[in-house]
Amino acid sequence: MIDVSFFGEIKKIKLTELSVLCGFRIVGEGDFLISGVSVLKEASKNELSFLGNGKYIPDLKETSAGAVIITEKNLSDLPKGVVGLVYPNVMVGYAKVLDILYSQEIHEAYISDNAYIHESAKIGSNCCIGAYTVIGEDVEIGNNVTVGSSCVIERNCKVGSGGKIRNNVMISHSIIGNNVLINSGAVIGESGFGIIPTGKEMVYIRQLGRVIIGDRVRIGANTTIDRGSIDDTVIGDDTIIDNLVQIAHNVTIGKRSILVAQVGIAGSTKIGDDVVLAGQVGVSGHIEIGNGAIAAAKSGIASSVESGKIVGGIPAVDVNTWKRQAVFLKNAVTRKKKGNT
Fold first, then answer.
1. Same fold for the domain at 4-101 and the one at 169-320?
2. Residue 95's pLDDT is what?
3. CATH of 169-320 given 1.10.472.10, 3.30.300.30, 2.160.10.10, 1.10.4080.10
4. 340 has a pLDDT exceeding 70
5. Are 52 and 91 in contact (CB under 8 A)?
6. What is the CATH code for 4-101?
7. First and final CA of the chain: distance in angstroms?
8. CA-to-CA distance for 7 and 4, rounded, in angstroms?
9. Which residues pair with 140 in a beta bridge?
10. Confidence band for 193, pLDDT divided at 50, 70 and 90
11. Domain spans, the chain
């Protein structure tokens, strides 16, 4: 159930009108004023639902929803009387629906009396800055930016227009593009590891690079992105970074890549466009991961990965090899157990 106290009242709109706005092909008869969006099991006759995963086909066959966003191949599983809203990618269609039915969060221009903004800082129009936030010397913030409470943006940083920085975010040595979302607790621009043990002492190498973040990047809660040592740490446009991700100094990541929770990337690694690193993937330093490569969850990538390659395991190997290794190990252990009985 979508809680209206957090997300507001649904827009009053008829199913046929919404279908036109979203580009759905309607299969079946019926029109109604949409009262909500819900999962297949819980949806009522005036609510929408969606089939985002084939695992939920049993729920689809029993649903009481008024209409379901669905692909062509699953139309035969719709119960009688339920309207199909056909779209090639169900989750994209679902995203379009939510954007229409539930209004975007709107803020009024507001700067808390408890915020500290250095007199040399430049703040754009229609910005919102929360309590106990500190904006340093010569910081530049574009128009229509929200900065939450207890954030720190240190001197000379730049934040483009349309961004949203949530609470307790720390930013230094960084240039950030337009329409970037940074979730709570993220730390961007701190020094990288840069430690050389000599046997007698730990020598620290000063980190003199920056973090450069492109447009429309999303950065998850409690993620850390270190500044470069000399070269910059760079995150390309439209890249999505989940919660609790560590990106070390001098790492470069291309456009539209996805880093799922608890990914860790060591220094000076280059990651291409459209790369997917699933949860808890670890990446060694000074290697390259080509465009479109995919790493399965918990993989340990110790050497460079070619473009388009799918890898898995520790150390990561071609996904088919990894599967054969897993089967071989399982069979070996099973044979050993049988031999001991």
1. no
2. 96
3. 2.160.10.10
4. no
5. yes
6. 3.40.1390.10
7. 53
8. 5
9. 122, 158
10. confident
11. 4-101, 169-320
User: 256 φ, ψ to 5°?
Assistant: 60, 20
Mind listing the pLDDT tens digit for each residue in 78-119?
Answer: 999 999 999 999 999 999 999 999 877 777 799 999 999 999
262 contacts 241 by C-beta, under 8 angstroms: no
Query: Is 249 in the active site?
Result: yes
Query: Which pLDDT does position 338 carry in this prediction?
Result: 63
Q: What is the pLDDT of residues 121-172, one digit of tens each?
A: 999 999 999 999 999 999 999 999 999 999 999 999 999 999 999 999 999 9
Catalytic residue among 107, 173, 249, 286: 249
Q: Would the pLDDT of 214 be above 60?
A: yes
Q: Residue 233: its pLDDT value, please? A: 98
